[in-house]
Design a protein that fits this description.
Number of helices: 7
Number of strands: 17
Helix content: 25-40%
CATH topology of the domain at 65-159: T-fold
Structural class: alpha+beta
Distance between the termini: 27 Å
Strand content: 25-35%
Strand order of the largest sheet: 1-2-6-7-10-15-16-17
Radius of gyration: 19 Å
Length: about 325
């Protein structure tokens, strides 16, 4: 049966909730296999928390090394996010995340309690920044996409948490659409990509708060969406609640001005790059988004909403 969307799969992978919908019930099983297989492969090559992942096993000596096609695509996506945001989204923040205590799977981090007490969170200096926290900068990474050669600066830890999930949503949606012919929506923890025929009336997409409440429902007609939040991936470091979005300019978690930012874009990667950059920019985010003609919905920590041009007005969920 074609037309109205059906759920092909709901599961957890790469540390987040995953949901796949298709407009053809006959395509559901295949769509589920494609999504689960793709995310399993992504975790194997790009996880920062698996000792056996290709990312963790990379040399950090500044010398070129050949990487797998999948990790090459992940690196390319991460560097594209950096270019799109003039470095506000930077894959070289891994060391800073570790210094702030995010050195393993988030559930394990939380289970250990305050990371400074556990000895895994550097004591902050007068600015509140851990003494060892540093961000080498994305331009220090040398990468030849044609030859798949990557040179990681000495001591640099790469982290693609701000781009790999969105990249995967785009790739999985495109593959399911191409292989099944069905309309497809892939939602990986708030990074949403679609492909193929749109269901009648469009995709109904709920913008959720950190507590899971649907704050607004928007209709997707081919665009991608991404939400970045300062409220979900949090832990305690030096007796202060921290979040996972690092400001590359300071090496510290971005100032918490926005509880979350949702952006619509042509791809999930572009939307996520912009929503993450908006969190980093704080009060400057609305102007930055407007200058790039990006429709966005920003929820302040004070509960106030801000819209940029092109974002539909709020409607009942």
């Amino acid at each position: 049966m074609r037309g109205l969307p059906v759920i092909a799969a709901e599961f957890r992978a790469i540390g987040t909730s995953c949901r796949v919908l298709v407009t053809d019930r006959a395509a559901a099983a295949r769509a589920a296999r494609i999504a689960q297989g793709a995310l399993g492969a992504l975790d194997q090559v790009a996880s920062r928390f698996r000792a056996d992942s290709e990312l963790v096993r990379l040399r950090k000596d500044g010398l070129p090394q050949r990487i797998s096609p999948l990790l090459s695509a992940v690196v390319a996506a991460g560097l594209r996010a950096a270019r799109l945001t003039d470095g506000l989204v930077d894959p070289t923040v891994g060391g800073a995340l570790i210094d702030w205590g995010y050195d393993r799977d988030l559930e394990e981090v939380r289970a250990l309690g305050d990371r400074s007490a556990a000895g895994s969170c550097s004591a902050p200096d007068a600015r509140g920044v851990p003494a060892r926290a540093s961000v080498p900068g994305w331009r220090s990474v040398r990468y030849d996409e044609t030859l798949r050669l990557l040179a990681v600066p000495p001591g640099c830890t790469l982290d693609f948490g701000a781009s790999a999930k969105a990249f995967a949503a785009d790739q999985i949606a495109a593959r399911i659409g191409a292989e099944t012919g069905a309309g497809t929506l892939v939602d990986l923890g708030g990074d949403i990509a679609t492909a193929g025929p749109t269901p009648p009336g469009g995709w109904r997409i709920g913008v959720q708060s950190a507590t899971g409440d649907v704050l607004q429902t928007v209709l997707g007609t081919g665009q991608a969406f991404a939400t970045s939040s300062t409220q979900l991936r949090t832990w305690s470091c030096a007796a202060v609640r921290r979040h996972h979005i690092i400001d590359p300019r300071s090496g510290a978690p971005a100032e918490v001005v926005w509880a979350q930012v949702t952006v619509a874009g042509s791809t999930a990667l572009e939307a996520n790059s912009a929503s993450t950059a908006a969190i980093v920019l704080g009060r400057e985010a609305p102007g930055w988004l407007v200058a790039r003609a990006l429709p966005a919905l920003l929820l302040g920590v004070d509960g106030a909403w801000r819209h940029t041009s092109g974002w539909a007005g709020r409607e009942a969920a």
